[in-house]
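Dear colleagues,

As part of the handover before I leave the project, I'm documenting each prediction I ran so the next person doesn't have to rerun anything. This entry is a single chain, and its sequence is reproduced below.
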Amino acid sequence: MPTVQDPLMIVTDLDGSLLDHHTYGWEPAQSWLDRLNAADVPVVICSSKTAAEIVPLQQALGISGAPWIGENGAVVNGGDVSEVPPLIPDGKDYPAICQTLAQLRNQQGFKFIGFADVTEKEVSEWTGLTPADAALAKDRQGSESIIWRDSQENFDRFQQALKEQRLALIQGGRFWHVMNEGSGKATALAWLLKHIPSRAGQPWITLGLGDGPNDAPMLDSTDYAVVIKGYNNTPVTLSRRDEARIYRCALYGPEGWSEGLTWFLAQE
Protein backbone atom coordinates (compact mmCIF):
# COMPACT_ATOMS: atom_id res chain seq x y z
CA MET A 1 0.00 0.00 0.00
CA PRO A 2 1.20 3.57 -0.61
CA THR A 3 2.07 5.94 2.23
CA VAL A 4 2.23 9.72 2.55
CA GLN A 5 6.01 9.33 2.88
CA ASP A 6 6.20 8.01 -0.70
CA PRO A 7 6.48 10.33 -3.72
CA LEU A 8 2.67 10.22 -3.72
CA MET A 9 0.38 12.25 -5.96
CA ILE A 10 -3.37 12.38 -5.39
CA VAL A 11 -5.27 12.90 -8.67
CA THR A 12 -8.90 13.79 -8.10
CA ASP A 13 -12.09 14.61 -9.88
CA LEU A 14 -14.13 17.41 -8.30
CA ASP A 15 -17.90 17.31 -8.86
CA GLY A 16 -19.36 14.26 -7.13
CA SER A 17 -15.93 13.28 -5.82
CA LEU A 18 -14.01 15.80 -3.71
CA LEU A 19 -17.01 18.14 -4.00
CA ASP A 20 -20.56 17.12 -3.08
CA HIS A 21 -22.73 16.59 -6.18
CA HIS A 22 -25.51 18.81 -4.81
CA THR A 23 -23.90 21.39 -2.49
CA TYR A 24 -20.33 21.52 -3.90
CA GLY A 25 -19.06 21.35 -0.30
CA TRP A 26 -15.97 19.35 0.74
CA GLU A 27 -16.03 19.53 4.56
CA PRO A 28 -15.93 15.72 5.11
CA ALA A 29 -12.65 15.64 3.17
CA GLN A 30 -10.97 18.51 5.02
CA SER A 31 -9.09 16.38 7.55
CA TRP A 32 -7.47 14.38 4.75
CA LEU A 33 -6.68 17.55 2.80
CA ASP A 34 -4.94 18.92 5.90
CA ARG A 35 -2.97 15.72 6.37
CA LEU A 36 -1.88 15.57 2.73
CA ASN A 37 -0.86 19.22 2.82
CA ALA A 38 1.18 18.65 5.98
CA ALA A 39 2.96 15.73 4.28
CA ASP A 40 3.63 17.83 1.15
CA VAL A 41 1.59 15.43 -1.00
CA PRO A 42 0.26 17.25 -4.09
CA VAL A 43 -3.49 17.06 -4.67
CA VAL A 44 -3.92 17.43 -8.43
CA ILE A 45 -7.40 18.43 -9.55
CA CYS A 46 -8.44 16.54 -12.70
CA SER A 47 -11.85 17.93 -13.55
CA SER A 48 -14.30 19.14 -16.16
CA LYS A 49 -14.11 22.55 -14.47
CA THR A 50 -12.39 25.52 -16.09
CA ALA A 51 -9.22 27.33 -15.03
CA ALA A 52 -11.39 30.20 -13.79
CA GLU A 53 -13.16 27.74 -11.46
CA ILE A 54 -10.17 25.62 -10.43
CA VAL A 55 -7.74 28.31 -9.27
CA PRO A 56 -10.12 29.84 -6.67
CA LEU A 57 -11.10 26.33 -5.56
CA GLN A 58 -7.43 25.47 -5.04
CA GLN A 59 -7.16 28.48 -2.74
CA ALA A 60 -10.28 27.47 -0.80
CA LEU A 61 -9.10 23.86 -0.52
CA GLY A 62 -5.63 24.90 0.65
CA ILE A 63 -3.81 23.38 -2.35
CA SER A 64 -2.78 26.53 -4.22
CA GLY A 65 0.20 26.09 -6.51
CA ALA A 66 -0.41 22.40 -7.20
CA PRO A 67 -0.59 21.25 -10.84
CA TRP A 68 -4.09 20.80 -12.24
CA ILE A 69 -5.97 19.40 -15.21
CA GLY A 70 -9.09 21.22 -16.42
CA GLU A 71 -11.92 20.79 -18.90
CA ASN A 72 -11.68 16.97 -18.82
CA GLY A 73 -8.04 17.04 -19.91
CA ALA A 74 -8.27 19.77 -22.54
CA VAL A 75 -6.16 22.10 -20.37
CA VAL A 76 -3.04 21.15 -18.35
CA ASN A 77 -1.26 23.45 -15.91
CA GLY A 78 1.95 22.76 -14.01
CA GLY A 79 1.11 25.09 -11.12
CA ASP A 80 4.12 26.48 -9.29
CA VAL A 81 6.16 23.36 -10.04
CA SER A 82 6.86 23.50 -13.75
CA GLU A 83 5.93 25.06 -17.06
CA VAL A 84 3.93 22.50 -19.02
CA PRO A 85 3.65 23.00 -22.78
CA PRO A 86 0.25 22.67 -24.46
CA LEU A 87 -1.01 19.10 -24.68
CA ILE A 88 -2.08 19.54 -28.33
CA PRO A 89 -0.19 22.56 -29.71
CA ASP A 90 -2.15 22.67 -32.96
CA GLY A 91 -5.55 21.87 -31.44
CA LYS A 92 -8.66 24.01 -31.76
CA ASP A 93 -9.20 26.68 -29.13
CA TYR A 94 -12.63 27.37 -27.62
CA PRO A 95 -13.89 29.82 -30.26
CA ALA A 96 -12.85 27.40 -33.03
CA ILE A 97 -14.60 24.48 -31.32
CA CYS A 98 -17.78 26.53 -30.94
CA GLN A 99 -17.58 27.64 -34.57
CA THR A 100 -17.26 24.01 -35.71
CA LEU A 101 -20.24 22.98 -33.56
CA ALA A 102 -22.36 25.81 -34.96
CA GLN A 103 -21.50 24.75 -38.50
CA LEU A 104 -22.41 21.12 -37.83
CA ARG A 105 -25.71 22.14 -36.26
CA ASN A 106 -26.60 24.46 -39.15
CA GLN A 107 -25.51 22.09 -41.90
CA GLN A 108 -26.76 18.76 -40.51
CA GLY A 109 -29.56 19.82 -38.18
CA PHE A 110 -28.19 18.26 -35.01
CA LYS A 111 -30.17 19.22 -31.89
CA PHE A 112 -28.00 20.16 -28.93
CA ILE A 113 -27.32 23.19 -26.76
CA GLY A 114 -23.98 24.30 -25.33
CA PHE A 115 -22.63 26.74 -22.79
CA ALA A 116 -21.81 29.19 -25.59
CA ASP A 117 -25.49 29.27 -26.57
CA VAL A 118 -26.89 30.37 -23.20
CA THR A 119 -26.48 32.90 -20.41
CA GLU A 120 -24.95 32.48 -16.95
CA LYS A 121 -28.51 32.23 -15.61
CA GLU A 122 -29.25 29.14 -17.70
CA VAL A 123 -25.95 27.47 -16.79
CA SER A 124 -26.81 28.23 -13.15
CA GLU A 125 -30.18 26.51 -13.55
CA TRP A 126 -28.56 23.46 -15.18
CA THR A 127 -25.85 23.03 -12.57
CA GLY A 128 -27.03 24.57 -9.30
CA LEU A 129 -24.07 26.96 -9.38
CA THR A 130 -24.53 30.59 -8.40
CA PRO A 131 -24.71 32.96 -11.39
CA ALA A 132 -21.22 34.21 -10.53
CA ASP A 133 -19.82 30.68 -10.49
CA ALA A 134 -21.73 29.84 -13.65
CA ALA A 135 -19.90 32.72 -15.34
CA LEU A 136 -16.61 31.05 -14.37
CA ALA A 137 -17.88 27.77 -15.85
CA LYS A 138 -18.52 29.59 -19.13
CA ASP A 139 -14.96 30.96 -19.21
CA ARG A 140 -13.63 28.09 -21.32
CA GLN A 141 -10.35 27.50 -23.17
CA GLY A 142 -10.32 24.10 -24.84
CA SER A 143 -13.69 22.32 -24.69
CA GLU A 144 -17.43 22.92 -24.94
CA SER A 145 -20.06 21.35 -22.69
CA ILE A 146 -23.32 20.40 -24.38
CA ILE A 147 -26.71 18.82 -23.68
CA TRP A 148 -27.75 16.40 -26.43
CA ARG A 149 -31.40 16.73 -27.50
CA ASP A 150 -31.54 14.45 -30.51
CA SER A 151 -31.84 10.76 -31.41
CA GLN A 152 -29.29 8.04 -30.84
CA GLU A 153 -28.95 7.63 -34.62
CA ASN A 154 -28.07 11.31 -35.00
CA PHE A 155 -25.77 11.07 -31.99
CA ASP A 156 -23.73 8.44 -33.81
CA ARG A 157 -23.61 10.68 -36.89
CA PHE A 158 -22.59 13.60 -34.67
CA GLN A 159 -19.68 11.64 -33.20
CA GLN A 160 -18.48 10.74 -36.69
CA ALA A 161 -18.78 14.35 -37.85
CA LEU A 162 -16.72 15.49 -34.86
CA LYS A 163 -14.08 12.87 -35.60
CA GLU A 164 -13.74 14.23 -39.12
CA GLN A 165 -12.99 17.61 -37.50
CA ARG A 166 -10.40 16.01 -35.16
CA LEU A 167 -12.73 16.49 -32.21
CA ALA A 168 -13.93 13.95 -29.64
CA LEU A 169 -16.94 13.60 -27.34
CA ILE A 170 -16.56 12.61 -23.68
CA GLN A 171 -19.40 11.91 -21.24
CA GLY A 172 -19.30 13.74 -17.93
CA GLY A 173 -21.54 13.73 -14.89
CA ARG A 174 -24.02 16.26 -16.28
CA PHE A 175 -22.91 17.08 -19.82
CA TRP A 176 -21.19 15.80 -22.93
CA HIS A 177 -17.86 17.52 -23.54
CA VAL A 178 -16.50 18.30 -27.01
CA MET A 179 -12.72 18.60 -27.10
CA ASN A 180 -9.69 18.04 -29.29
CA GLU A 181 -9.12 14.46 -30.37
CA GLY A 182 -6.27 12.92 -28.41
CA SER A 183 -6.95 14.88 -25.22
CA GLY A 184 -8.61 13.51 -22.11
CA LYS A 185 -7.95 13.03 -18.41
CA ALA A 186 -5.60 10.04 -18.80
CA THR A 187 -3.60 11.65 -21.61
CA ALA A 188 -3.35 14.90 -19.68
CA LEU A 189 -2.18 13.09 -16.55
CA ALA A 190 0.53 11.23 -18.49
CA TRP A 191 1.62 14.54 -20.01
CA LEU A 192 1.72 16.17 -16.57
CA LEU A 193 3.71 13.34 -14.99
CA LYS A 194 6.22 13.63 -17.82
CA HIS A 195 6.88 17.27 -16.97
CA ILE A 196 6.52 17.39 -13.16
CA PRO A 197 9.46 16.00 -11.14
CA SER A 198 8.77 14.21 -7.88
CA ARG A 199 10.67 14.49 -4.64
CA ALA A 200 14.18 13.02 -4.89
CA GLY A 201 13.58 12.34 -8.57
CA GLN A 202 11.73 9.07 -7.91
CA PRO A 203 8.75 8.00 -10.02
CA TRP A 204 5.41 9.27 -8.78
CA ILE A 205 3.00 6.87 -7.09
CA THR A 206 -0.43 8.02 -8.21
CA LEU A 207 -3.75 7.50 -6.45
CA GLY A 208 -6.80 8.54 -8.48
CA LEU A 209 -10.33 9.27 -7.28
CA GLY A 210 -13.43 9.77 -9.42
CA ASP A 211 -17.13 9.00 -9.70
CA GLY A 212 -18.07 9.33 -13.38
CA PRO A 213 -17.56 7.50 -16.69
CA ASN A 214 -15.23 10.29 -17.85
CA ASP A 215 -12.96 9.43 -14.90
CA ALA A 216 -12.45 5.81 -16.02
CA PRO A 217 -9.44 6.44 -18.31
CA MET A 218 -7.75 8.43 -15.56
CA LEU A 219 -8.50 5.73 -12.96
CA ASP A 220 -7.17 3.07 -15.33
CA SER A 221 -3.88 4.97 -15.58
CA THR A 222 -3.17 5.65 -11.89
CA ASP A 223 -1.31 3.19 -9.67
CA TYR A 224 -4.26 3.00 -7.29
CA ALA A 225 -7.90 3.81 -8.06
CA VAL A 226 -10.83 4.87 -5.90
CA VAL A 227 -14.26 4.64 -7.56
CA ILE A 228 -16.55 6.90 -5.56
CA LYS A 229 -20.24 6.03 -5.53
CA GLY A 230 -21.93 8.34 -8.02
CA TYR A 231 -25.34 9.50 -9.22
CA ASN A 232 -24.65 8.89 -12.92
CA ASN A 233 -26.78 6.18 -14.53
CA THR A 234 -23.74 4.98 -16.48
CA PRO A 235 -21.43 2.92 -14.24
CA VAL A 236 -17.71 3.55 -14.00
CA THR A 237 -16.24 0.58 -15.87
CA LEU A 238 -12.50 0.10 -15.54
CA SER A 239 -10.33 -1.89 -17.96
CA ARG A 240 -7.71 -2.74 -15.34
CA ARG A 241 -7.92 -6.07 -13.49
CA ASP A 242 -5.59 -5.47 -10.53
CA GLU A 243 -8.48 -5.56 -8.05
CA ALA A 244 -6.20 -5.20 -5.01
CA ARG A 245 -5.39 -1.69 -6.24
CA ILE A 246 -9.02 -0.68 -6.81
CA TYR A 247 -11.41 0.40 -4.08
CA ARG A 248 -15.12 0.98 -4.71
CA CYS A 249 -16.69 3.26 -2.13
CA ALA A 250 -19.99 2.78 -0.33
CA LEU A 251 -20.34 6.55 0.13
CA TYR A 252 -20.91 9.50 -2.18
CA GLY A 253 -18.87 12.67 -2.74
CA PRO A 254 -16.35 13.89 -0.17
CA GLU A 255 -17.44 11.19 2.29
CA GLY A 256 -16.50 8.58 -0.31
CA TRP A 257 -13.33 10.52 -1.13
CA SER A 258 -12.23 10.24 2.49
CA GLU A 259 -13.35 6.62 2.63
CA GLY A 260 -11.12 5.76 -0.32
CA LEU A 261 -8.05 7.54 1.02
CA THR A 262 -8.55 5.90 4.40
CA TRP A 263 -8.73 2.47 2.74
CA PHE A 264 -5.37 2.87 1.02
CA LEU A 265 -3.42 5.27 3.23
CA ALA A 266 -4.61 4.54 6.79
CA GLN A 267 -3.21 1.00 6.52
CA GLU A 268 0.38 2.23 6.27
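The mean pLDDT is 93. The longest helix spans residues 94-108.

All the best with the project,
I.
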